[in-house]
Amino acid sequence: MKRPLVARIETLEPRQLLNADWHNNALRCDVDDSGLVSPLDVLLVVNSLNSNGSRPLGMRAEGDPFLDVSGDNFASPIDALLIVNALNNDTGQPSIVTSVSPGDDPNSNGVVLKDQVTIEGTTRANATVRIGNGDGERLLEALSDESGRFRTELSVDRGYNVFELSVQDEIGRVAETKLEVRRGDLVTDWNAAILNVVREWTTVSDDPYEGRIVPSEPPRVARNMAMMHIAMFDAMNASTREFESYLSVSPPTQEVVPEIAAAHAAYKVAASVYSDADSMAYWNATLIESLAGYTNSDLAEASEAYGVQVGSAMLQTRNADGSDENVSYSHGDAPGDWQRTFPGYLPPLLPQWDQVQTFSGVDVNDFRPPPPPDLASEAYANAVDEVYRLGGLTSDVRTEEQTEIAVFWVDGAGTFTPPGHWNQIAADVLLEREISHLETARTFALLNLALADAGIAAWDAK
User: I need a labelling partner for 435 at 20 to 30 A (CA). Which of 132, 324, 328, 381 fits?
Assistant: First the structure.
C-alpha cells in the first residue's frame, strides 16, 4: 500500500537577491557603457539619486545605466564619488612595456631555448594585464604590483610566437603592446645574436669628414657570418660525419657533445671578428645560454676544447683571404666612371673585395655579367629613363607592390644588412620545421657560404 504524499513547507530565513547586473564588470566607472569614463557618468548617478534617492537596487532593465559602481548592490553618493576620484586621479594615457626575463633570454635576441619562459614588464600600479595570442585568444591575466611591475610565465611553441598584452585604466583608456618570441635551438640563437651585433656595430672613418660613423658593411657581414656558421656546422658534424665537412680538422679523439662543441666554435669565431666590448657582451651571454642545459656534462671540457680547435681552424683558413687588404681606389672622370655622389660623397665601399678568396673555391669570373650598354645607345637611355620613372620619390608609375618590395629590401645602416636579412628569413623558416640541430647548422653554413661568395662576385662585377 502506497503511503500518501504529505506536502511540507519549510520557512526559510530572509535572503536578499543580489543582482550584479547594475555593476559594469568590464569598467566599473563606465555607467553609460560607452567604453570610456567621463563626467556624464557622474551626472547619471547624481540624477538617479536626485530622482529616487539612495536605495537598494532591484532588477535592472536592459539599457538602464550601470549605477552600482561600488559593487554593493546599492545606489548611493559613494558611486558618484568613485567616478569623480577616478577622473581626478587621472595620470595620463596608460602605457605598458614588456620583455622576456633576462634569465630566459640572456642575450636579449628574442630567441629562447625553453618551452616555458617568464615575461616581465611595467605598467600602471595594481593594474590587470591581459595577455592573449596573435589570434585574439585570451590566455591569462597578470596583476601589477604597487610600483607597476608585473611578472608571469608563458608557454611558447617552437617557432614564431606573438603575444598581445593590454592594460586598461580606471577611465577606460587602453594601452597595448606586442611581444615576439621565437623558440629555437642553439644554432638559431647564435644566428640571432650575430644579427643583433651586425645591426648595432659601427666604426669610424675620417673620409670624407672626420668622425664619420660607418655601419656594418654587407660583404664583410656575409664573410663573418659564413665563418661562424661553417665552424658551428663542422664542430657539430665532427662526431658522426653525416655530411662532408668544410674544414680539414681531424675528428675528436674522444666523445664530445656536438652542441657544446658548436657553441665554443661559434664563440671563438664571433669573438674574433667582432671583438669590441659591446659585441663581447652578446657573445658571453649567448655562450651562457647555449651551455645552460649541459652544466653537468662530463664531456664539457673535451667538447669545449674541440669546439675551440674548429673555431681556430676556421680563423686560420680565412686569415689571409684578402679581406683586410688596403686597396687605393682612384675613380676616373670620364662619362660612365664611378663617382662620389650627393648627399654624402662617400668613398668606395671595400674596393678590395673583388679580390677576396671565395669560400667555395669558384672563380668569380664565371659569374661576371655582360657589360652595361654603351652610353650613347638607346638601351642605356631607356635604362636611365626607367630608373627615373620607377625610382623617383614621387613616381606615379611605380606600383604599391614595387614600393613595398623596395622598402623590404633596403637594409641600410642600422639593419641586419642584406645577408643578415636572408639569415632572418632562413631562421623563421627553419624554426617552423622539426629538423635536427645538425641539419639546421648545415643549412645556415651553406646559405652563408653562398651569400659570402655572392658578395665577392657582385663586387667583381662592379
Answer: 132
